[in-house]
Each structure stands twice: as C-alpha cells, then as structure tokens.
Q: What sequence folds into this?
C-alpha cells in the first residue's frame, strides 16, 4: 500500500476518435508549456508515434516504449526517455505498438493494463505532476486503456463542420467508461484547435460548442499557425522551435489556464 500522502500526478488523456484534430500537437505543446513550471511525462499511445517523432525520437531510435509497458510488463522507469525539454520525459511508441490493439484482446485485464502498469510505478510517478496520454484516432483498446488510467480527458476539437457530432461519440464513450470502468473519470475540458479567425465557420462552430459545453470549453483557443505545423519536422515542440509564434503563445496560455482551473477545483474541493 502506498503511503496515503504520497504525491500522485494528474493523469490526462488527449482523446478524440477523429484523426488530425490536434491531439498530438496539444499533447506535445501543452506538456512542454507545463514543463516550465511542473514535472511532466508524456506517454505516446498512438502506433503512428507522432508524439515521439515530434519530440525528437525518430522511428528508428524508438526501442522499448508504451508497447513494452502494456504488453511486456516492462517497468515504467526503464522506458522513460529525456527530451529536449528539461522537465518533460517521454515514453515513446515502440514499433510493435501497431499490433497491440489485436494482442490486447486476448490478454487478461485488457483494458486496465496501463492503469496497472502505472499503479506499479507509484514511486517514480511521485516525481511527476502531470502525465499525458496521447491516444490514437480511434476508440479502441489503446484509447480505452488511457481512459481507464486517466483522471481527466482533454478533447481537442477542430473548429469545423460536424465538430459537435464528433463530440457526441466521445462523450458517449466517456459516460460508458465512467459507468463501467473508471467512475472518477472527468471531462477535463475541450480545447478548440486550428482556429482560423478569417473563417466565419470557425467562429460559428466555436460559439456552438461553447453554447453546448459551456465552461467545459477552455477559454484559450489554439489558432491555426504554420509554425505549429512546421515544428514536428524539426523534432521540436513549437515552444522551442519558435517561442514567439502565436501558436506557441497559445499553448503557454492554455497551460496557465489548466493550472488556474486546477487551483479553482482544489479550492472548491476543500470548501
Ligand atoms: P491528431 O493527433 O489529432 O491526429 P495532430 O496533432 O497530429 O492531430 O494534427 C494534425 C495535423 O495538423 C498535423 O500535421 C499538425 O502539424 C497540424 N496542426 C495541428 N495543430 C495545428 C495548428 N494549430 N496550426 C497549424 N497546424 C496544426
Ligand atoms: Mg496524433
């Protein structure tokens, strides 16, 4: 039994069954912005490994990572790699992760393996404040493992037509996971991404999403910004690639808002 006062990080999953909505970009850059003030770990759960590449670990150098954690019972401590960001560690997506969805089906505790692996690493995790899970663009077993291990879910949402329809699928999944597998799971928030001020649709969709999800939508909006899309090809978060870009600054602001929301939540809980 861990000591009751042992620090435990906050586990946050970046999830949305749609691809290309900014999950990985938000995982990398929110984690980087938070690492200026907190200790952060990012676990790449997408077989495509874009978070790993974007943090400077190319496919050929991945070695053991989240697959080994989920399937091979390798301890977390042996899988964490340093990144160019001082207080940001990474568990990369190893090449074998592509087969994990299929392999997990036949394994015991197939949807709790990540949670169990993290529970076995409380000592190491006490050094971290935040652990992010970058999920693949599906609601399969890898995402399910993240949702079962998470305290909260961050849903990046691209400001485009059908954005709300996409939200109903993910919220249904969250409700189901909450009911059956992880009652403590919360919707930490919705992050509007790739916002284009010149496009009326962006504005309309943002208003719609805010009208429906109210304060669960972060005030901070991530603008579409070419520096954000260039950074991964240099293996760098946009905060290191071009700190002054509007994209980098938006992620700095998002991190500050996340911390502020957390302080408010703690205040409410204590009251
Ligand atoms: P997901 O992980 O949800 O599939 P990504 O984060 O990989 O989505 O983003 C999809 C693509 O959009 C990537 O090429 C990424 O570089 C680009 N992108 C993401 N956010 C922005 C942004 N704010 N401005 C410009 N391009 C972006
Ligand atoms: Mg991704």
A:
């Amino acid at each position: 039994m861990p000591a009751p006062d042992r620090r435990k990080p906050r586990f946050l999953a970046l999830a949305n069954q749609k691809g290309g909505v900014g999950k990985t970009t938000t995982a990398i850059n929110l984690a980087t912005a938070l690492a200026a003030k907190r200790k952060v770990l990012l676990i790449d759960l997408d077989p495509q490994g874009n978070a790993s590449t974007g943090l400077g670990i190319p496919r050929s150098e991945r070695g053991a990572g989240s697959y080994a954690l989920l399937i091979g019972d390798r301890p977390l401590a042996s899988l964490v790699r340093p990144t160019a960001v001082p207080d940001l560690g990474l568990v990369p997506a190893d090449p074998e992760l592509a087969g994990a969805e299929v392999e997990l089906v036949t394994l015991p505790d197939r949807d709790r393996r990540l949670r169990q692996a993290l529970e076995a690493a409380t000592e190491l995790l006490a050094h971290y404040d935040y652990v992010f899970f970058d999920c693949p663009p599906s609601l399969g077993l890898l995402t399910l493992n993240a949702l079962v291990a998470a305290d909260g879910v961050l849903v990046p949402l691209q400001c485009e037509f059908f954005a709300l329809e996409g939200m109903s699928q993910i919220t249904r999944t969250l409700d189901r996971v909450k009911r059956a597998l992880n009652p403590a799971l919360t919707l930490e928030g919705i992050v509007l991404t790739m916002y284009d001020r010149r496009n009326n649709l962006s504005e309309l969709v943002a208003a719609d999403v805010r009208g429906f999800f109210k304060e669960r939508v972060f005030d901070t909006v991530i603008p579409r910004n070419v520096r954000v899309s260039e950074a991964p090809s240099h293996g760098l978060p946009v905060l290191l690639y071009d700190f002054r870009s509007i994209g980098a600054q938006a992620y700095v602001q998002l991190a500050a808002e996340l911390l502020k929301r957390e302080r408010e939540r703690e205040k409410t809980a204590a009251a």
